[in-house]
Fold:
Amino acid sequence: MPQTTVATGTFSSRKAANQAIQRLVSSGFARNSIELHPHDEGEGYDLEIHTRAENVRRARRLINGSSMPLAGMSMQDMGQMASGAVRTARSHPLILLGAGLLAGFVLYNLIPRSEDRESAPRGRSSRSGRQTHRARR
Structure:
């Protein structure tokens, strides 16, 4: 079994502790590795998470995090997030292609059309600009 390290946090309310738990779980930490202990005086809660040593920094950031996830990120954290996005794109190229096609379709439909093209008659026109009609046989 790999060695684990404990990251902790103290919260004044159950709601704040539950929000931290939700941030941890939504970021991939196992719910069964998170423990919540009420203070003896009933004035707050202590949160503990058992995780590997390389994940302690991320766990602490999530425990103490705010509603703005990018506010306390270092350049190293942003680089890890970007490399994770690149790995995901490489492992799922069809999804990336589909997203690109969808973005292109949306942009194409947002481009305004010139009104003189839309109001032009649908029949064939000669080079002089006059419409030609084919005779029926």
The two ends are 89 Å apart (CA to CA). The chain has five helices and three strands. The chain has a mean pLDDT of 80. Residues 93-110 form the longest helix (18 residues).
